[in-house]
Amino acid sequence: MSKVRYAVSGLEHPGWEEQYYPEDIPDDWKLAYYSNDFPAIVMTAEQALDDEFVDQLDDIPAGFRVYVLVNEELGGNQRAELEDVLGGYFGGFIVKNNDLANLAAHILAQPVEGPFQAPVEVVRIAKMPDLKQLKQYLLALQSQLGQNDVLFWLDDEQVAIESFQQLKTLLELMAIA
Hints:
Blueprint: E1 4-8, H1 16-19, H2 30-37, E2 40-44, H3 45-49, H4 51-56, E3 65-70, H5 76-86, E4 90-95, E5 106-109, E6 120-125, H6 131-142, E7 149-154, H7 161-173
Parallel strand pairs: 1-7, 2-3, 3-4, 6-7
Antiparallel strand pairs: 5-6
Helix pairs in contact: 6-7
């Protein structure tokens, strides 16, 4: 397996203001703070092109990746703009379609032309299971993962920071990440 990353959708989640981010952190420091703990984030194209988000890219580590969730195929201009704006932080596109809601876990993000060796396997976790179930799932999944980069994407709008940190810890303890 090449590189394993884990991410949530966006930077704003209920409870994170009180439980994760420092009390007095400015909004334009949140990405840098988040990127010190986690190696990736999933954003919509609009969020990824937002000037305030783009301005924060200078403050994050070089290995951090931004995966862009799109509802349909992007036009060439917007795709080129995203690749240009995100530069080396661009991880790939996750194409969201009607089938995504029915998917238990595994989807594939097909990166566009660029510095990519292979597609990124995306493991979508729609609702955080308890740790025992998650561990069993990861053990079963471990043997299925190939040599491609892998993104564990916790796609839950109500994600608690504790759940995300538990996913991170479990992946690290199991030597998956």
